[in-house]
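PROTEIN DESIGN WORKSHEET
SECTION A - STRUCTURE
LENGTH: 310
TOKENS:
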């Protein structure tokens, strides 16, 4: 075979594996021009046309449209440049498919309702930037510029949830529940007040320093790791130690009032939703929940109440 050889369209179809209809379409589109026509008017193609057809088939299999392929063949853009753009597009498609797979697995595993499945789909199909804006909006509207420096605001910002590209069903469910939680205005208000109390120099704010101190956390963590129910008699030594810590820190409070003051303060600050928020953040990020990293106020509040009611 040499450069002067011309091939009728049927021969080209056999050599390239493309159909006659496809070759004719490429010719009419100007992607693969004819070399000549036979005396009878049949299309004839040269070696360059065969090579172009082979390249066109490859680029089409890679997902490129004909307009882009024509620009490549006309040397208006390089294959490398086009490949880079398409690689990014494929990455996005893969990410989308992974998220879709995760949603389907989550729906299958939990028997979700049509409404819940629809919500999961909508929330997970958001781009990374859109998901980040949801969290940024929560932080901005909850704490605002005047509270941006508070410790809790810094913690929320540092541990911002970031749904991975290929989340597990548990991460999908945690992400959906987390979004429902941060959309709750009452929850945002409670988070804001909690942040203010932590840095407040009022009596309540000072009490928080003891109740949330490392010494208290260590005692509660040890009790929880030992499987001690806060309502059981086994919890009493831990409660007694914590009450003594509080009494030593505030000797001006009469002993008879110490437990009452502690309960009152914990009832103000205790909100299961705040603890749930951190649990969901840890779940979405795929982090191991280590003892002592989540609030222990619920355990202590139950253990302190005189009537031992949960």
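SECTION B - SEQUENCE
RESIDUE ASSIGNMENT:
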């Amino acid at each position: 075979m040499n450069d002067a050889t011309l091939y009728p369209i049927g021969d080209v179809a056999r050599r390239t594996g493309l159909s006659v209809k496809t070759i004719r379409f490429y010719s009419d589109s100007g992607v693969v021009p004819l070399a000549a026509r036979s005396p009878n008017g049949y299309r004839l193609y040269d070696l360059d046309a065969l090579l172009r057809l082979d390249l066109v088939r490859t680029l089409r299999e890679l997902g490129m449209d004909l307009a882009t392929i024509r620009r490549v063949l006309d040397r208006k853009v390089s294959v490398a440049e086009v490949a880079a753009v398409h690689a990014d597009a494929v990455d996005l498609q893969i990410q989308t498919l992974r998220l879709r797979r995760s949603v389907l697995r989550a729906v299958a595993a939990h028997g979700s309702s049509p409404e819940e499945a629809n919500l999961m789909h909508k929330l997970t199909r958001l781009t990374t930037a859109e998901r980040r804006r949801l969290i940024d909006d929560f932080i901005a509207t909850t704490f605002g510029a005047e509270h941006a420096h508070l410790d809790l605001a810094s913690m929320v910002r540092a541990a911002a949830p970031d749904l991975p590209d290929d989340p597990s069903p548990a991460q999908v469910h945690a992400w959906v529940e987390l979004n429902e939680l941060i959309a709750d205005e009452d929850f945002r208000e409670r988070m804001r007040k909690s942040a203010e109390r932590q840095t407040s120099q009022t009596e309540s704010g000072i009490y928080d320093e003891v109740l949330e101190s490392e010494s208290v956390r260590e005692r509660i963590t040890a009790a929880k790791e030992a499987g001690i129910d806060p309502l059981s008699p086994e919890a009493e030594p831990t409660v007694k130690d914590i009450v003594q810590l509080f009494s030593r820190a505030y000797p001006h409070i009469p002993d008879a009032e110490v437990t009452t003051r502690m309960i009152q303060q914990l009832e103000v600050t205790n909100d299961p939703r705040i603890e749930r928020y951190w649990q969901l953040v840890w779940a979405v990020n795929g982090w191991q929940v280590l003892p002592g990293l989540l609030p222990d106020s619920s355990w202590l509040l139950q253990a302190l109440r005189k009537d031992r009611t949960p």
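SECTION C - NOTES
The longest strand covers residues 43-45.
Residues 79-110 form the longest helix (32 residues).
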